[in-house]
Automatic annotation (TrEMBL):
Catalyzed reactions: 4-CDP-2-C-methyl-D-erythritol + ATP = 4-CDP-2-C-methyl-D-erythritol 2-phosphate + ADP + H(+)
Keywords: ATP-binding, Isoprene biosynthesis, Kinase, Nucleotide-binding, Transferase
Pathway where it operates: Isoprenoid biosynthesis; isopentenyl diphosphate biosynthesis via DXP pathway; isopentenyl diphosphate from 1-deoxy-D-xylulose 5-phosphate: step 3/6
Physiological role: Catalyzes the phosphorylation of the position 2 hydroxy group of 4-diphosphocytidyl-2C-methyl-D-erythritol.
Single annotated GO MF: ATP binding
EC category name: transferase
Segments forming domain GHMP kinase C-terminal: 198-273
The protein's name: 4-diphosphocytidyl-2-C-methyl-D-erythritol kinase
């Protein structure tokens, strides 16, 4: 018996940090949406009770350090499941990119095992388990578009933003989320995004207001550590992007573009500068569907 689940990447349309919490995490307020760049997680039932994992990207861990493996272990222990599973991850999302690839693989694994092991859990119950794996996993369990608060695990669903093209560009560096948060001085943040205005832009599918409302307080930290990120931002703006922002803790930068003619110009300009460039669409309110 085998199930395959798509694990879409996410981008942050806003990312605000409000305070440092006693538990070492930060209080965040972020609007996230999924895009149609996705990993695929294949899950094959194992009667011997073992959990094993293979990944198409050799540099991604294939043991308990892999978030998908962690998800399977958590589900097996919580529900005393006798069977095991072999996980195969077809890696398409750049790693350590600010696109929550690992979190999305974990969320896809939770959703697929719920079906493969006939656990009958609700989406909310899966999201609660996801919060034990990482702050982005609950959002990835639901997919679509949402406002995430707390450390990122409290989710308020939103409607689909105005449809547009999204061009993702990742410079050849990996950025560690803990390092970026560790370098953030919350008291010195002077560019808090207007989250309410972003919510209004999404509710009214107002593309230009959405572009004006983009904001990510982690950007300045990552830009100061990695100048290439600013170069990509400047190139996207110079090539005519309607909106530009770094996603999550970076280093991926995305451009929002409404007219397809502009997409080619921006894509070609970026291709001369970075290898990892993707032209994708927002998934709006859909989620990573479960395939046969
Ligand atoms: C920055 C964001 C924004 O979407 O995404 P990515 O850039 O990773 O995609 C997330 O907050 C990343 O979430 P995630 O990658 O799940 O982080 P976690 O594993 O929970 O935490 C990794 C580390 O980041 C820091 N962290 C994360 C979330 C948060 N609200 N406050 C924090 O301080 C902590 O140091 C934590 O130990
Ligand atoms: N399934 C996975 N896919 C990618 N990276 C993973 C996965 N599981 C664990 N990791 C580890 O998590 C880190 C990157 O996680 P990822 O979600 O790709 O980054 P980000 O949260 O910035 O989007 C890397 O250190 C990688 O080794």
């Amino acid at each position: 018996m085998r199930i395959s689940v798509k694990a879409p990447a996410k981008i942050n349309l806003t990312l605000d940090v409000l305070a440092k919490r006693p538990d070492g995490y930060h209080e965040v307020e972020m609007v996230m949406t999924t895009v149609d760049l996705a990993d695929r997680v294949d899950m094959t039932l194992r009667e011997d009770g073992e959990i094993t994992l293979d990944c198409s990207a050799s540099f991604v861990p294939d043991d308990i350090r892999n978030h998908a493996y962690k998800a399977a272990t958590l589900m097996k222990e919580k529900f005393q499941v006798r069977q095991g599973v072999h996980l195969y991850i077809d890696k398409q999302i750049p790693v350590a990119a600010g696109l929550a690839g690992g979190s999305s693989d974990a969320a896809a694994t939770l959703r697929g095992l719920n079906q493969l092991w006939n656990l009958g859990l609700t989406r909310d119950e899966l999201a609660k388990i996801g919060a034990e794996i990482g702050s982005d996993v609950p959002f990835c369990v639901y997919g679509g578009t949402a406002l995430a608060t707390g450390r990122g695990e409290q989710i308020a669903h939103l409607g689909a933003p105005a449809p547009c093209w999204v061009i993702l560009a990742k410079p050849p560096i990996g950025v560690s989320t803990p390092d970026v948060y560790g370098n953030l001085r919350v008291a010195q943040i002077d560019n808090h995004p207007d989250t309410k205005q972003m919510l209004q832009a999404i509710a009214t599918q107002d593309f230009s207001l959405m572009c004006q409302s983009l904001g990510n307080v982690l950007e300045n930290v990552t830009l100061s550590l990695h100048p290439q990120v600013k170069q990509i931002k400047d190139l996207m703006i110079a090539s005519g992007a309607d909106g530009v922002l770094m996603s999550g803790s970076g280093p991926t930068v995305f451009a929002l573009v409404q007219k397809e003619a502009k997409v080619h110009r921006i894509y070609n300009a970026l291709r001369g500068f970075v290898k990892d460039v993707f032209v994708v669409r927002m998934l709006g309110a859909q989620d990573g569907e479960i395939l046969a």
